[in-house]
Design a protein that fits this description.
Blueprint: H1 47-57, H2 59-63, E1 69-74, H3 80-88, E2 106-111, E3 117-122, H4 129-141, E4 145-151, H5 155-175, E5 180-186, H6 193-218, E6 221-225, H7 232-244, H8 248-262, E7 264-271, E8 276-280, H9 287-308, E9 324-328, E10 333-341, E11 344-351, H10 358-393
Parallel strand pairs: 1-3, 1-4, 4-5, 5-6
Antiparallel strand pairs: 2-3, 7-8, 7-11, 9-10, 10-11
Length: 394
């Protein structure tokens, strides 16, 4: 693990690639996005402008510019509170055994970064949206997503889940037609692979039958197999956050360019606090790749806590703008981590032969880093503009 001791990354001119090395990493031209429309680059000048204009025309996208509200619902002891405590509060999975059952609606603000900025509402098992709508009609209409949790080891809960989900979904759609739905089939750590697959397909079929043809087109849910004892719950919540991220396609497009130009195998943009990946490139996500990239964040922070700061520096933090790491694996692969912003990290998987031109890689990562920061500024301006419009209406 490497930690730069002082000073920012050196500014270097992009290497001029030889024409015969097209299969090698190539530099991305760096520039201030949107400042020079005549400049040719791999990062298009109008990348942000086009997507931002489209988002402003879409009511659902505009709603996401504020703080998304996610409702956690499900049966009794299904693991709603345990999930968000483990993911966002870093609680040990074994400590969740001592959490009391939820008896009233609990609200938790999560503000790790500009992309992981949520308000979680934890509903008790006995509560329904219809019962709460009289007092919280305005608040519920502003909710962005409902995460419905089903205990995979509770046969009775599985039997009643489709009907209860339909009741909740129909009530939610009356308040907000743009509501998104996610179903977590939880506590699958005690099941074998065949049982997991059977539980997933069975629940999907019963929910489709319960919804009927009319509601099936209006209410579409994504399904995830989760457990707090592995990375599956983090990956599932990553998908939830991505669906709530304003202009996600811009981040994915930038990662695609970075992966193609740097000859990477895979790249993730992680929220360092929760280890949720807010974006990745367009190649399919392999579970083992995600797990090893996620674990790399823990390795970097743990070693930085021990060796990164001087003993006399009491205000030093374990992750800052000088944080970075290179880990060479035994399968001829390199794990590469680079700080992007205070709470974001780029974690990549690269073949050793493509890592030989590390100067090109660092140059491309720096160009990506600057583009993400520009995107964050545009995101902040869009949120401020929306807040002013809401205040003007009131």
């Amino acid at each position: 693990t490497q930690r730069r001791s002082s000073g920012p990354l050196p500014k270097r001119s992009p290497p001029t690639p030889a024409p015969t090395m097209s299969n090698q990493p190539q530099p991305v031209q760096s520039f201030d996005v949107g400042k020079d429309p005549t400049l040719s680059s791999s990062f298009p000048v109008n990348m942000y402008a086009d997507n931002a204009a489209a988002s402003q025309e879409n009511g659902a996208s505009e709603r996401l510019l504020g703080r998304p509200r996610v409702l956690l619902m499900g049966g009794s002891r299904c693991g709603k509170t345990s999930i968000y405590r483990v993911v966002f509060h870093k609680m040990s999975p074994h400590e969740t055994l001592f959490i009391d059952s939820t008896t009233k609606v609990g609200k938790t603000d999560v503000h790790n970064s500009s992309f992981v900025d949520l308000q979680l509402w934890d509903f008790p098992a006995s509560a329904t949206l219809k019962e709460l709508s009289s007092e919280n009609a305005a608040a519920l209409s502003e909710a962005s997503a409902i995460v419905y949790i089903v205990d995979a080891q509770d046969d009775q809960g599985l039997a009643h889940a489709p009907a209860r989900f339909r009741t909740i979904a129909e009530a939610a759609m009356e308040k907000n037609p743009n509501m998104m739905f996610e179903i977590f089939i939880h506590k699958v750590d005690g099941l074998n692979d065949d049982t997991k697959t059977q539980a997933l397909s069975s629940l999907q079929e019963r929910v489709r039958r319960e919804m009927g043809n009319a509601q099936k087109e209006r209410i579409r849910a994504s399904y995830h197999l989760t457990s707090i004892y592995d990375h599956s719950v983090f990956e599932a919540f990553s998908k939830v956050v991505q669906r709530l991220t304003w202009n996600l396609s811009t981040l994915e497009n930038m990662l695609d360019i970075l992966v193609a130009r740097s000859r990477m195998e895979k790249a993730f943009l992680f929220d360092v606090v929760s280890k949720i990946y807010v974006a990745t490139d367009s190649t399919p996500v392999d579970v083992q790749t995600y797990e090893i990239c996620s674990d790399m964040i823990d390795v970097v922070i743990d070693i930085s806590c021990i060796y990164g700061a001087q003993q006399s520096d009491s205000e030093a933090i374990a992750y800052d703008d000088q944080s970075g790491s290179i880990i060479r694996l035994s399968n001829d692969t390199v794990l590469y981590l680079h700080e992007v912003s205070r709470y974001l990290a780029l974690v990549c998987l690269i073949k050793s032969k493509n890592f030989e031109r590390s100067g090109v890689l660092e140059y491309n990562v720096e160009a990506f880093r600057k583009s993400v920061k520009e995107f964050e500024k545009m995101h902040a301006r869009a949120k401020a503009s929306r807040s002013k419009r809401i205040a003007a209406r009131q």
